[in-house]
Amino acid sequence: MSTAVLPPDFLWGFATASYQIEGAPHQDGRGPSIWDTFCKIPGKIADGSSGDVACDSYNKSADDIALLKQTGAKAYRFSLSWSRVIPLGGREDPVNEKGLGFYVKFVDDLLAAGITPLVTLFHWDLPDNLDKRYGGLLNKKEFVADYTNYARVVFKAMGSKVKHWITFNEPWCSSILGYSTGLFAPGHTSDRSKSKVGDSSREPWIVGHNLLLAHGSAVKVYRDEFKSKDGGEIGITLNGDWVYPWDAEDPKDVEACERKLEFSIGWFADPVYFGHYPASMVSQLGDRLPTWTEEEKALVKGSNDFYGMNHYTANYIKHRTGTPEPEDFLGNLESLYENKKGEIIGPDTQSFWLKPNPLGFRKLMKWISDRYGKPTIYVTENGTSLKGENDLPVEKILEDDFRLKYYQDYTQAMADAVSKDGVDCRGYMAWSLLDNFEWAEGYETRFGVTYVDYAGGQKRYPKKSAKEIHKCFDALIKKA
Questions:
Q1: Active-site annotation holds for 468
Q2: Any idea what DSSP says for residue 127?
Q3: How far apart are CA 71 and CA 66, in angstroms?
Q4: Residues sharing a CB contact under 8 Å with residue 249, sequence separation 6 or more, in sequence order
Q5: 2 pLDDT exceeds 80?
Q6: Does the chain have fewer CB atoms within 10 Å around its N or its C terminus?
Q7: Which residue of the set 142, 203, 296, 381 is catalytic?
Q8: Which is nearest to 143 in space by CA: 209, 205, 193?
Q9: What value does the mean pLDDT take over residues 174-203?
Q10: Percentage with pLDDT > 70 across the chain
Q11: pTM (two decimals)
Q12: Residue 275 DSSP class
């Protein structure tokens, strides 16, 4: 039986991202993002689709709020489309009042429904014009200045209403998938069969550094100009999987586990909490990893009011010997789904990379809490796809027992991290409110607690998980 251990004001709800749900790419003056451009390149998206319509949430925001109310959610994390707010993206470019006004009204409508907004400023959809104008995320001076301006425009428009801000979602993905493997927009990679441009050995580390500086700069603006009157908090959201040694008896596999966490989480969190990159990264990457000026260090160190945690799965880690490849971004190791004894990390889902392992969630929460001095944590994404879900008849899709069990197991693991490991966790956002455009996987993979009928006018049908997830929190949250 679950024991109520989460604080009475614990925020639970759901998360989405602008390009994955909004559609309406040209409506009311929105400009193109790098994802609009990337989706047009043949072969980049599994089913050849795009976010042109997606869930049509730009025109169905009232439906989404009704859904949230139906589930009993206390909070909703969503992201803003920068190119909807400033279509050309830059600090000298005009603000699109219609686009900005859409988000201001949406926040007002959420608050009127008793739902707390958590706003992500950047969830991968950079204005395409900035990529074309000066190389986007690769250009430190221009990108940091333009992002800071965009953040200020948004803080000014709704800082008095929004109390929880996230600067960037998963900078690891923007850096590695966007500039090393080329699987995500803008698709840079050293592999010339996939892209004419890119240097996988250097570009991702430059991009990661620039994202950290933009984060620090936006946080400084918020703290200097808005926080005292608006009273909100701001942080960055980082993705990370838990790690188990492939051979628990091999100290090199145990050591490789720590290195994997440093290359994925420490890459961004160490500068934010300590003011420097992990030693393991400096050692492997040498001069390819940018160095910190004193000014940059001061900007980024201490720039989190909370830690935003995105988490889905775990891996077995096997060390590698010899010199790492120049393109290596894992830390000279293999990330596997089966260990030396033949044990599988968790059951299969539709996503090749995701195999549920709830204990790993608890262990990672403790690792983050211990390493970074017990920060306040908001779980900003957690959820699962289901193997073959898209091929099932609708009535079977709505009976998503596998997803519901995932949420039951993972919320209990989170509660254990709080009650048994002393982790300070204040919120949990399930991914996702809606089935949506799953990036390079297109619409073949569904993550929603709500079925979206893409062929039937984007009509929404709540699955069992949408109707029952509230029971997890009813049991785990202390009564005020």
A1: no
A2: B
A3: 9
A4: none
A5: no
A6: N
A7: 381
A8: 209
A9: 98
A10: 100
A11: 0.98
A12: S
Q: Which residues contact 391 (CB under 8 A, 6 or more apart)?
A: none
Dump the DSSP string for 381-398.
E-----TTGGGS-HHHHT
Interhelix angle 401-421/464-476, rounded to 10 degrees, is 20
Cβ atoms of 15 and 380 closer than 8 Å: yes
Question: Cβ(403)–Cβ(396) under 8 Å?
Answer: no
- SS3 (DSSP) at 194: coil
Q: What is the 3-state secondary structure (H, E, C) of 415-473?
A: HHHHHHHCCCEEEEEEECCCCCCCHHHCCCCCCCCEEEECCCCCEEEECHHHHHHHHHH
d(CA 138, CA 203): 7
What pLDDT, on the 0 to 100 scale, is given for residue 1? 56
Tokens of 407: 């949420």
Are 451 and 463 contacting, i.e. CB atoms less than 8 angstroms apart? yes
Token output for 315: 């891996």
Give tens-digit pLDDT for 4-32: 999 999 999 999 999 999 999 999 999 99
**Do residues 85 and 79 make contact, with C-beta atoms less than 8 angstroms apart?**
no
Structural contact between residues 162 and 119, judged by C-beta atoms closer than 8 angstroms: yes
pLDDT given for residue 210 in this prediction: 99
In which residue are the tokens 């290596």 written?
Answer: 328
Q: Which residues pair with 79 in a beta bridge?
A: 120
Do residues 324 and 332 lie in contact, with contact meaning Cβ atoms separated by under 8 Å?
yes
User: Rounded to the nearest 5°, which phi and psi values hold at 459?
Assistant: -65, 145
Question: What is the spatial distance between Cα 417 and Cα 411, in angstroms, rounded to a whole number?
Answer: 10
Residues 86-131: tens digit of each pLDDT:
999 999 999 999 999 999 999 999 999 999 999 999 999 999 999 9
Region of 75 please: left (phi>0), alpha (psi -120 to 50) or beta.
beta
Which pLDDT tens digit goes with each residue over 297-316? 999 999 999 999 999 999 99
pLDDT one-digit tens code per residue, 345-389: 999 999 999 999 999 999 999 999 999 999 999 999 999 999 999
Q: Of residues 22, 170, 262, 441, which has the active-site annotation?
A: 170
Does position 245 have pLDDT exceeding 70, yes or no? yes
CB 466 within 8 A of CB 400: no
54 by Cβ neighbours in 10 Å (0-12 / 13-18 / 19+) ranks as: buried
- Average pLDDT over the chain reads 98
pLDDT at residue 133, as a whole number: 98
Residue type, 284: Q
Kind and range of the H or E run holding 270: helix 267-274
